User: Fold this.
Amino acid sequence: MKSDSIAHSRNFEKRPFWFTLVNSSWKATYFLGTKIKLDKDELIRSAKKVTGLDDLGKDFSDEPLEKLLRSVNEEADLHPVGRFITRQRFISLLSIRLRAEYFFHRHPEILEQPLYPSWIIIGLQRTGTTKLQRLLAADPDHRVIPSWEVINPIPLTLNEKARDKRIAVARTSVRALKLISPGFFAIHPIDIYEPEEDILLLDVSFLSTTPEAMMHVPSYADWLEKTDQSAAYAYAAKLLKFMQWKKPAKRWVLKTPHHLEFPDLIEKHFGEVHYLWPHRRIYESVPSFLSMVTYNHMIFSDHVDEIRIAAHWIRKTGYMLDKALDYRAKDNNPARFTDIYYDDLIRNSEKELSRIYSLDGGLTPELITRFGIHEQDHPHRKYGTHHYSLADFGLTEADIDKHTSRYQKFISERYGR
Assistant:
């Protein structure tokens, strides 16, 4: 990998002029004390004030939030709007936890439920995981977490008879993202009614890789990788129980690449699970993901280094894959995985779905119709073409091989590709 920094590729659309103007104007007033503070105690006080609640739960730990805030404040180099978004997001995560504890105490039957069985999609980013989950969401027996719900898994009001405002909040968030980063939707289309990654449930414990995908937080990322994340998975299971209590179904269909690193914790806290593992030629999936991360970082900071992003995530990708392969190799675990190849899913999704549904009695004519309608309504590249290349990040195939040779061997032996 080259060590010198490179300018933003033309593949990365520039931020809108108004966004740059707001940041520069706001930053010019910092001497007046307008810089937003990111302080743990102040964030917690604000969340308690917003919700009118004060119980974060006996299993809440300050340490992850403290570690993350220190890294954000010292390393992330956020611009003013980035600091504003981060503060609002952290207050929101704390508020979710406060509201969750309120409902858990008010309705103890929520946590007395067993979790539904789960199909969990654990492929790398940009391997067709979103397409697969959204197809499976067309099955009425499946419980997914739509984007509006994963942003706020607990209702914003404690009055159970009041109108739910979460959809309106999610719609506003999507509009804001389109204004700030219009090119993002060609990479990862967001529809508030379509399922989104459940990694956002882990964020409520401030133990997830979301921050390092959004900003430069190396000390937090290093600490996270060495830290037991059982508490985050245990609390995510509680949130899933709340959501299935609100809307019952037969099976959860969840997905996030983050789970590649922690299949043992999924097994421990989520109960009966089967893993769906999409694969794609890694020289395509890696730069595609790096492009998405670069767009993320540009939302929060004016100083985005594609080379630095690539160095971090190439190593991290290899680490995650090795953890998943280690787990898969144990005992009878291979039987708990169904593999899907990206090109096959794009070319003939019905055939791949048929293999998956062999786990559950096979496809029915009704399901085939439902999946066909979904495909018609959501054509490939509906939001435009996503342009990316290894060269955007100063990478060669050898750089990727260095960290992913074991996984590539696994794919070659399985698919001959």
Observations:
- The chain has a mean pLDDT of 91.
